[in-house]
Specification:
mainly alpha; 10 helices; about 60% helix; about 300 residues
Length: about 300
Amino acid sequence: DVYKRQYQRRVRADATGIVEAWRHFLNASSNREVKANGPYLYDLVDISSQVLFNLFSDFHLEFQEVFQEWQFHNINSSLEVISLSSKMLELIKDIDLVLGSNVNYLLGIWIETAKSWATDAEEAALYEYNARNQITLWGPDGEINDYAAKHWNGLVGDYYFRRWNLFTSTLSQAVLKGYHVDFDKYLADLLALEQAWDSESKLYPILPSGDPLAISRAMLVKYATDPTTSSYTRYPNTDAPGNDITSRNTWTTDVSQLKILCDANPSCKGFNSNGWLKTDVSKTCLLYTSDAADEEDSV
């Protein structure tokens, strides 16, 4: 409906705008226009991690679509699934690194604070379980799963990483070995993983690690700057209709990020500035086409 279309357009605009805001925010510190004090660094980690979460959503969209090529059409998409799953897991670890650089985004503080109210070891174990369960399953069997999800270091890099690793490995193995996924078994395995984490007593940092400015700059280079391993040719005011990799366009329309998303998918030959990744750009000119695709077409 109209509301949904307007909402989707706003989300895409916000996802692209926040990338540019990230660049300006970092430049303001580099140019000494603002002081890198506590509030600034808090916002920097917030903006940096949000950009990366948004990009993760686009990687996930690509992953889902290439997996469905196998699941529903029996098209071998093993190269794409392996490449995209690797990028998703790598990105989760990088998000966790960003979050770990600021004291306000640490899972360890949440858990240790809960335990500090206990009067003995048994009570401490109970309080830790409750603290873990509240931000994950919210109930012994996931009655309100992820209701109180948090973007915290430790939670992202451990709990969420384990969940996404199970998801990507389950689907990747199905494509590689040529069988369809038993999703009932997957969901049972996922719940068992989540319940096991809730019952653990692993310690997480209660102090930040690393320089948030340096980490954010490194992430900007990695995830919002033109990749150096590939090149693209721009064709103004043109498009290549059809041959879309995904059923909807990506959240980001930032050109540097679109290049990164295209590079991560072996079947991507180019994209347009509206966030549509393409498997074929031969019928007409596209806004951006991969030079590698041109070389393949000329062979």
